[in-house]
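Supplementary Methods, section 5.1.

A reviewer requested that the exact input to the structure prediction be made available. We therefore reproduce it here, unchanged from the version used in the analyses.
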Amino acid sequence: MNAPVQIQRDDALSPVQHLWTLCRDDMAAVDALIVERMHSPIGMIPDLAQHLVGAGGKRLRPLLTVATARLCDYSGDAHHKLAAAVEFIHSATLLHDDVVDESDLRRGRKPANLIWGNSASILVGDFLFARAFNLMVEAGSMEALGILSNASSVIAEGEVHQLAALRNIDMTEDDYMTVIEAKTAALFAAATEVAPVITGLDAAKRTALRDYGMKLGLAFQLVDDALDYGGQQSALGKSVGDDFREGKMTLPVIRALAKADASETEFWRKVIVAREQDDLDLQRAVSILRRTGALDETLQMARRFSVEAIETLDPFERSPLRDCLQDLAAYVVSRAS
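The structure derived from this sequence is encoded token-by-token as follows.
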């Protein structure tokens, strides 16, 4: 088993920032496309889209698309369109999620639906989905179009599955893994798979990059779910405790319930199923999760996926780009440190 690669870089830069540095020109082209395609004569559309897309997100998913394209020695420009499409798909799902989740914070600011309303957020999310499909078609690869369009439908299914499981304390760990693979990891996997497709690489390297994205996405979501109970708002990008307040069944809660005594089971039934919560209940939930080891177990699983993601890139020759992608997998988990 390989240890996370230590790359040579400015210690002040995170792996995400270093990857941006390596892909600066590509990301400038992607950002220009995003700004161009957000334009509409209907003023509410660019205003609302810019509120989210321009809110300082890391653009991690499109960054993965251009980084893996460079790793594959791709020489065209279709990856810029595909990367912008990936960002629009992600942004559209966030706009829809904010309506469903009723959160009061997204990327450190008030969600668009609390400013423009739910209807506008849903419709602009639909606009961004449409723009994503425009870009996919323009990229000129039917196979890449199939990968990203399939990911879009899988994400929607994952969100509906999560909604159906809301406040269901009988949700299994297998169901939870199915949900996060669909709603989060599927887009990471698609973002990294399209590069070898448009480059025409062999099936082994295509599978390796898809697996890298999938494992990275699973690690990312597991850490997010742990941070909702034990993290800082700045690391999470949304309000700490949102999952708890919304009654979402995430792995920390599922693991804690498996070890709960009668009084703790009743507590979870009260706060998750009935959503009867007072100001001290989140603190008690965190205490239970820590005592039962549920948070540690969630992060341990994230670390396992992180190591697996690192190992998937072994078929590629050692380079600053490959090393940075491997280091990124370790960094995703280190957010919880």
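The domain at 15-334 is CATH 1.10.600.10 (Farnesyl Diphosphate Synthase). These observations are discussed further in the main text.
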